[in-house]
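Deliverable D5.2: sample structural annotation.
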Amino acid sequence: MKHLHYNLIFQPEPEGGFTVIVPALPGCITFGSTLEEAKSMAIDAIQGYLASLKKHNEPIPSDKASFISSIEIPQTTHA
């Protein structure tokens, strides 16, 4: 069975829970009250998105060759 790879961005929300964004799938965004629920909701959202792409004979993108990294930039203050 072929596996597809997708990067997920989890953003904590001020009121609680996490918004999940799937960068390779534009508009594929979901939410979960916990990290575990957010990941489960992301899997469900990705599967629905892929089913729609397949139904419309659209190409299936993947993040297999990409990755997410982060950097810290010093904050500058203005006088």
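Annotation notes: The two ends are 59 Å apart (CA to CA). The chain is about 25% helix and 15% strand.
The annotation will be released with the project's public dataset once the embargo ends.
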